[in-house]
Amino acid sequence: MKKLWAWRFDVSVYVFALAVALLHLGVFQHPLVGYALSVSDAGSNALVNVISLQVLQIALMVSFLLLLAAVSVTLAKIVATAFVITNAIALYFMRTYGIELDISMISNILGTNTRQSFDLWHWHIAVYFVVLGLLPVIAIWKARIRRPRWFASLAASVGVFAALLAFLFATSFTWLWYDAHGTRLGARILPWSYVVNTGRYYNKKAKSNREQELLPDATFTGAAPAGKDIVVLILGEATRAANYDWYGYERDTTPYTDDKDLAIFPYGDACSTNTIGSMACINTHEGREAGSRTGYEPLVSYMTRHGVETIYRTNGAGEPPFNATSLMRGSEVVAECAGDDCPDPYLDGALNYKLGEALDASEADRILVTFHHTGSHGPRYSEKYPEAFEVFTPVCRTVQVAECDQQILVNAYDNTLVYNDYLMADLIDQLDRIDNANVVLIYVSDHGQSLGEGGMYLHGVPPAIAPAEQFEVPFFIWMNDAFKQSRGLTTDAIVTDVTYPHDFPFHSVMGAFGMRSDIYKPEYDVFNSEVQAN
Ligand SMILES: [Zn+2]
Predict the structure, then answer these.
(1) What are phi and psi of 473, to 5 degrees?
(2) Which of 19, 167, 382, 404 has the lowest tally of Cβ within 10 angstroms?
(3) Is the peptide bond preceding residue 394 cis, with omega within 30 degrees of 0?
(4) How far is the CA of 30 from the centre of ligand 1 (A)?
């Protein structure tokens, strides 16, 4: 017995790193592969996706452990031990409760509710801990690792990582699959799910704790409004100008707003091709100059601080942290809806739900409503609208959009625009019924979208090489009669020759409320008749 306890074995650092990686494949990847198979199409795709995941896991683990071993072999052992023990416990919870270790789960675990989570413990966890955790850890510490030369270990680490990048580029046809399922795959890949999401959790916390720089205090011109001043700002998602009939597209993608007297501005360039970058521009007074990590007080917080009631309904994410009077996800907006004609909680129709009634009931003089749409977010466009809006057929239904004929992909995308147009018309009808209020609606998209032009899909290509489709976004405004009369404006008169889609919203919202401060830029206020007349 004593002899057995004293027994050790020799391995090279490379065999050690590979063995730990293979342990992960053999023991800890069940939830990951199960999910990967469930979201793979039949046939060769499933195989390719799973093989790709194996390569990814081996390369990440080997590269990471060799990097640590370049510093110290003991450090590599300690980290491997922490991974294996944590994995064993995580696997128990993942298999027993079907949980995923995404950022919200990590916030739950690290947040204040840890005591409640002890309710979930069961003696079975000891089996996982001993068999899948302790036994491999004993093997890790029985191994006598020959100390590598630090530069050899470092070079091998970099080499493995470079090989992984080369592999990923060579199999770039899997990217769309990763893009579509990345969040949920990432929440199941042990140990990286909890490593990365714990990092993200603390990063997010630090970011929201960082003091935002307040904008200068503002004043409202004129007396308090007779009736309510209401501004509705719609932050669209991935709707591109190229597919709007207003801008010359051959299909009628906006049939519902034909009689709505919209002020349709020329299309203009988004400030970035991704949601976070564009949200920073639209939501701050800096407009297109804003960096994606801007520290300035965003529009909604600015309004809230000045006594405007701010209602925020969202199916999206990515805006700078803000304070709103009320903030709800679509699913929360329709939570109390009962019956057959309730909107799907995950589609944008949920945001429209009974908005007019809420505004009627409000006692506030000034109200800013913001919607953040899920809109035309790809790649599964066919799931972004209710069935009744499938007017262009047939449609692409797979996330492997490159496999679809381009026209059927465009069909699915165009249906999302038709649905969006229906929602705008419905919203305008609701707003038009509110008595004794000056109302404007402003719509802007965050960025455009590629639908296979030049082999590109989705969005987010670096600006220097992004195609026009990813930049060019629609911009339009609706005003009720009371607002037009009170300002002496007409629909035609406010339309400018050039659109600054990510500069207009902030300053035009200020303008619509008659709000002024040092950061207000009249040239970006479309309701400023003196400027528009020039
Ligand atoms: Zn977006």
Answers:
(1) -125, 150
(2) 167
(3) yes
(4) 32
pLDDT digit string, tens, across residues 59-117: 999 999 999 999 999 999 999 999 999 999 999 888 876 777 887 777 666 654 444 45
- CB neighbour list of residue 146: distance below 8 Å, 6 or more residues apart: 10, 11, 12, 13
Domains identified in the chain and CATH numbers: 2-208 (no CATH), 229-453+483-493+510-533 (3.40.720.10)
Predicted TM-score (pTM) of this structure: 0.68
Task: Give the residue-averaged pLDDT of 107-130.
Answer: 66
**The two three-digit tokens of residue 345, written as one number:** 């909680």
Distance 317 CA to ligand 1 centre (A): 9
Give me ligand 1 centre to Cα 183, in Å.
16
How far is ligand 1, taken at its centre, from the CA of residue 65, in Å? 36
Q: What's the 500 CA to ligand 1 centre distance in angstroms?
A: 18
Q: Are the CB atoms for 188 and 100 separated by under 8 Å?
A: yes
The 3-state DSSP class for residue 375 equals coil
Q: How far does the centroid of ligand 1 lie from the alpha carbon of residue 179, in Å?
A: 14
Question: Burial code of 54-85, b = ≥16 C-beta within 10 A, e = fewer?
Answer: eebbbbbbbbbbbbbbbeebeebbebbbebbb
| Contact predicate 143/11, CB 8 Å | yes
How close is the Cα of 271 to the center of ligand 1, in Å? 12
Residue 374 alpha carbon to ligand 1 centre in Å: 8
* Tokens representing residue 261 in the block: 């007297």
CA angle, 408 as apex, 403 and 410 as ends, to 5°? 105
- Kindly give, in sequence order, each residue whose CB lies less than 8 Å from that of residue 275, ignoring residues fewer than 6 positions away: 237, 316, 317, 318, 446, 447
Q: 447 alpha carbon to ligand 1 midpoint, in Å? A: 6
Dist. CA 448 → ligand 1 center (Å): 8
